[in-house]
Amino acid sequence: MYKDVKEVLVTSKQIAQKTKEIAQRISKDFAGERLLMVCILRGASLFFADLVRMITTEVNFDFMAVSSYGSGTSSSGEVRIDKDISTRIEGQNVILVEDIIDSGNTLIYLKRLLLARAPKTLKICALLDKPSRRQVPIEGDYVGFSIPDAFVVGYGLDYKERYRNLPEICILKEEIYLDNNEDI
Ligand code: IMP
Ligand code: MG
User: Fold this and answer.
1) Ligand 1 centroid vs 8 CA: distance in angstroms?
2) Separation of 28 CA from ligand 2 center, angstroms?
3) How many CB atoms lie within 10 A of CB 111?
């Protein structure tokens, strides 16, 4: 798998350190309160698993799966819910956990959808952020690393379902996806 990697952008050690810092901030902000942590499948699964076990306040889990239509390495504004959460979130403190904020289309859609269900609070946590790619105005409340405009894989992130199990965040070689214009 590493043969397709151009460069390691964030090491496992840096990920672990940052995840701990985010968990501490969340634990402090929600001390004494219960949280519903919602993992956006599948990219956020590893980050979610590492993050929740370092949060010291009471946490419930739920999962959501979404697909965004697009070609190559970019998404479109169209988002489809493949799996909704099964928890009633009215009056709850909800944190959406994403792998990466890119155009922002996915999160702006999810935020609107969940806000309509009247949670007590709704926050966004993302391991990675590519601010230069934003198409809609949305920011994460807890963000790990701001990264340049490069397509990354590993630690849950994929290119066509591959490379999710790489332990680090890696920049994929352009030649892997350049001749290829199918959906991500
Ligand atoms: P957005 O709706 O454009 O913000 O896209 C968010 C989704 O696109 C993420 O949840 C990822 O699944 C995917 N994505 C965006 N950038 C990357 C990347 O660099 N590597 C892998 N997946 C990405
Ligand atoms: Mg993906």
Assistant:
1) 18
2) 31
3) 16
